[in-house]
Specification:
The protein is α+β, with helices and mostly antiparallel strands and 808 residues long. Helix 7 packs antiparallel against helix 9, helix 14 packs antiparallel against helix 16 and helix 16 packs parallel to helix 28.
């Protein structure tokens, strides 16, 4: 049994929420398709399917058949020694089997192959790799299209801009001419003449049938597929105004002509869609900024020489050289040199991070001032930056539960509006008051005008954009501050969190023991006690002993190799250094070695009460001092916990440590509710208990030992540093190891959900208020078209405000 696959297809031509439901409904009908989610804001379709029953090309064909396009790129790749028919057949077969390649057509005469591919599934590097693996050599190809999806979107925006300009060129003079006639500036006999009407009809025709042709095509395809979308409303509304005016011009009906109304309706809505597309483009600015971090060229050391190669050609294990001011091309570990690196765009940390030998570096971050060389550990799609971009794109393509209401309304919205328009027309014909004798408008004209106003005022676009645009901006902003939100559902749930459960080790604390206190007798200095203890512990691998060794390194103390060394399990170590007997360990070790504690016992007890581990150091049978080791609290933990409390959130700590240590750490950061001595497997049960009490729980841990609890919580947050964090299973990942990311994620979620509710309110409120206004004849069609166009722009612009809001 094969596993299901998921692909993301970039869709072109969607105009409203009904387009979304049309694609989802039709794609789900295909055999082997298990589910599809279409996002109007990102203009992408995420489809789960069984690859044994259906292929990607079938999905593309279905989307194109129902009236929409799928952005694809073309590459004409020149090859060396490609002249045999068998070569062309073999390469075509190799490429067409590859995911995301729709077409591969070889040309023996030009020694090239034309490849059509979907940029969200495969890219140039993947295609090149497949060609090379098939045994062919690629020539330099200078004219290969890059950024295929963006180019397709921009081409569509440019086309819409051209149509808008044409619409303005014809509509504006027509509107001015009509207003001049209505105001009496143009003499009535001239304005109402048959030639004047014909002129207006001719001027309006390019707008109606060229600029507005997309609406006719879209309406036809929507109706053919058993649905009705915004195109139906626009095409029907403008056509009624235009065709009625044609009948008046031909003398078949009496009344005023509305050619300018039909033209301006189309032009205003085209203006709104153009502004909406421009604004929607800004919602993905964060993704583009992340992508722009990736350099195109890397300097590697091969065969003893420095070589500049494309980043896509860097291999795991390559020695990569980075000079001051350059971006780091891939992930790796420093082998030579040291520097400070700006990791703000990846981790959200504004302070540059110091890097030395054995430090991990992240691709896309900026080397500030030092030369260094590193060994590549993750390249291509495996780098942390690539993982972050993928996570954000997946989150932006998902649907939040709050969107279900908008989807349900949008599914019936257009048919309801059509019904209301028909009721409006009938009501004005049957119930409308008689028209004044000198009025140009007949009862039929009045009914038609009000019906057209109802048709064009309705806007399913705003409802369709309300949630996804806010999700896009919110998740994008999260990525900029080091908060990776993997799904819109997690974002929505985070907004309602009232209880945060924090793991201790590695979350509140640094996760590694460090020396916190040094007390010595009058005979010895701090450095001397550390020198003796560290020299002995250097032969041990115990974490507490290594903490003392690290402290010696911080003090630049030179260590001495012990003449004798022995480890006492559960107690400490003993040995001989420079002819002196040294013992480092707990009270049990001192007792076993017959070393008197004297007054040191009280000091040990106080340190233990503060959650620290005291290690006694004896020299020649006499205690020289005590070194306390503890897992230090992160500098920002207390401040972040206080911020959580100010948000009204109950903060708890859960740990497997003993109660005394746990309470000491809790007290140091202001946490009163401490759950200690809990095994990793039982943490999930504790979270479940809180949920049973009606709490909405966020569990924050390292994403590995705490994985059952992270999965059980309403929202799991993996916190940590390094590239492994990208693989964490929690729905929210904090790239840096700072607890402030927890606060930021909650504030970000609250801001995003608040924006979604604002968008939905105005989308619904707009239609609920203005449709009746139009039905009662209080809104002329031109103003209705303008209001419709601006409603979607308002929703997008309101979502963009999220990027400016602080979450600190």
């Amino acid at each position: 049994m094969t596993e299901n696959r998921q692909v993301v297809l970039p869709v072109i031509g969607m105009t409203c929420a009904n387009c979304v439901s049309t694609i989802e409904r039709n794609v789900k009908k295909l055999p082997g398709v298990n589910g599809s989610i279409v996002n109007l804001s990102t203009e992408r379709a995420t489809i789960d399917f069984d690859p044994e029953k259906i292929q990607v090309s079938d999905l593309v064909q279905k989307i194109e058949k129902v009236g929409y396009g799928v952005a694809s790129g073309k590459m004409n790749i020149n090859l060396k020694r490609f002249s045999d028919i068998s070569d062309s057949i073999r390469l075509e077969k190799t490429l067409t089997k590859k995911d995301g390649i729709l077409l591969a057509k070889a040309n023996i005469a030009t020694e090239s192959i034309l490849v059509r591919f979907i940029p969200t599934i495969t890219d140039k590097e993947d295609i090149y790799a497949a060609i090379k693996q098939a045994g062919f050599e690629i020539l330099d190809n200078e004219n290969i299209e890059e950024n295929v999806e963006d180019n397709a979107r921009h081409a569509e925006i440019d086309y819409q801009k051209k149509l808008l300009i044409i619409g303005i060129i014809f509509s504006l003079p027509l509107l001015v001419y009509s207003m001049a006639g209505d105001l009496g500036i143009i003499p009535a006999p001239v304005f109402h003449s048959i030639w004047s009407k014909i002129l207006m009809m001719v001027v309006a025709a390019p707008v109606q049938f060229y600029v507005g042709w997309q609406y006719y095509v879209g309406a036809y395809k929507a109706i053919r597929n058993g649905s009705a979308n915004m195109d139906v409303l626009v095409a029907l509304g403008s056509s009624v105004a235009y065709i009625f005016s044609v009948f008046v011009t031909a003398g078949l009906l009496h009344g005023h002509v509305y050619f300018e109304t039909a033209a301006v309706i189309i032009t205003l809505i085209k203006l709104g869609k153009f502004l909406e597309a421009r604004a929607k483009g800004r919602t993905s600015d964060s993704i583009r900024r992340l992508m722009s971090l990736r350099p195109n060229i890397a300097t590697v050391l091969r065969d003893g020489k420095e070589q500049e190669i494309p980043v896509g050609d860097v291999l795991v294990g390559d020695s990569v050289i980075v000079k001051p001011g350059e971006s780091i091309p891939v992930d790796g570990i420093i082998s030579q040199g040291s520097t400070f690196i700006d990791e703000a765009m990846v981790t959200g940390e504004s302070i540059p991070s110091e890097k030395t030998i054995e430090s991990e570096v992240i691709g896309g971050t900026i080397n500030l001032n030092g030369w260094f060389m590193f060994s590549a550990t993750h390249v291509g799609k495996d780098t942390l930056l690539a993982q972050i971009i993928k996570m954000v794109e997946d989150a932006q393509g998902s649907k939040a539960p709050i969107q279900k209401l908008a989807d349900k309304v949008s599914a019936i919205f257009v048919p309801v509006v059509l019904g209301l328009a028909l009721i409006t027309f009938t009501a004005w014909i049957v119930l409308g008051s008689p028209m004044p004798m000198d009025s140009e408008m007949t009862p039929l004209t009045r009914a038609l005008v009000n019906m057209v106003a109802v048709l064009v005022i309705a806007c399913p676009c705003a409802m369709g954009l309300a949630t996804p645009t806010a999700i896009m901006v919110g998740t994008g902003k999260g990525a900029e501050i080091g908060v990776l939100i993997k799904s819109s559902e997690a974002l929505e749930k985070t907004a309602s969190i009232d209880t945060v459960v924090l793991d201790k080790t590695g979350t509140i604390t640094l996760g590694q023991p460090a020396v916190t206190d040094i007390y010595t007798s009058d005979k010895y200095s701090d450095d001397e006690v550390i020198r003796m203890a560290a020299s002995l512990e250097n032969s041990s691998e115990h974490p507490l002993g290594q903490a003392i060794v690290a402290e010696a390194g911080n003090r630049e103390i030179i260590l001495i190799r012990p003449d004798l060394f022995s480890s006492k399990t559960g107690m400490g170590v003993i040995g001989e250094i420079e002819g002196k007997a040294i013992a480092v360990g707990n009270i049990s070790l001192m007792n076993e070695e017959g070393i008197a504690l004297n007054n040191w016992g009280e000091k040990v007890t106080r340190l233990q009460e503060n959650g620290k581990t005291p290690m006694l150091v004896a020299i020649n049978g006499e205690i020289a001092g005590v070194v306390a080791v503890a897992d230090k609290v992160k500098p920002s933990s207390m401040q972040s916990i206080n911020r959580l409390k100010k948000l009204g959130i109950n903060v708890m700590m859960i740990t497997g440590d003993n109660l005394r240590t746990a309470q000491a750490v809790g007290a140091s950061v202001g946490i009163e509710n401490v759950i200690a001595e809990v095994l990793p497997g039982n943490k999930a049960a504790k979270v479940k208990e809180l949920q049973s009490a009606g709490k909405h729980v966020m569990m924050v841990g390292d994403g590995i030992n705490d994985s059952p609890a992270l999965a059980q919580a309403d929202v799991g947050v993996a916190i940590g540093t390094g590239t492994d964090i990208a693989m964490a299973s929690a729905p929210i990942v904090l790239v840096s190891g700072d607890l402030k990311g927890v606060v930021n994620s909650i504030n970000l979620a609250k801001n995003t959900v608040r924006t979604i509710k604002q968008n939905l309110f105005w989308a619904f409120f707009y239609n609920i208020i203005l449709i009746p206004v139009a039905a009662f004849g209080l809104l002329i069609p031109i103003f209705a078209a303008g209001a419709m166009a601006m409603s979607s722009v308002f929703v997008v612009m309101n979502s963009l405000r999220l990027s400016k809001k602080s979450v600190e």
